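Work Package 4 report. The design task specified in the project plan requires that, given a folded chain encoded as structure tokens, an amino acid be chosen for each position. We show below one input record used in the internal validation round.
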């Protein structure tokens, strides 16, 4: 199921093996399964497959157990 146009998404960077950026879906190409996304900060655009995207931005979090000894 494609992400609707205008949806705020994260992009999975397989090189760094982490989610990054803040992108908006600009266009959907159902015949190829690709989504055109635009970076909200740099306005750069790219084509990616749907499996490299996830909905919205996750809020920052912190693991308190890592900071207990400080």
């Amino acid at each position: 199921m494609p992400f609707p146009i205008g949806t705020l998404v994260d992009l999975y960077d397989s090189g760094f093996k982490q989610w990054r950026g803040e992108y908006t879906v600009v266009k959907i190409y159902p015949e190829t399964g690709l989504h055109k996304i635009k970076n909200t900060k740099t306005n750069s655009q790219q084509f990616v497959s749907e499996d490299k995207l996830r909905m919205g931005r996750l809020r920052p979090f912190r693991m308190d157990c890592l900071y207990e000894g400080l």
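The beta strands are 8-13, 18-29, 34-39, 45-49, 53-55. Validation will be extended to a larger panel in the next phase.
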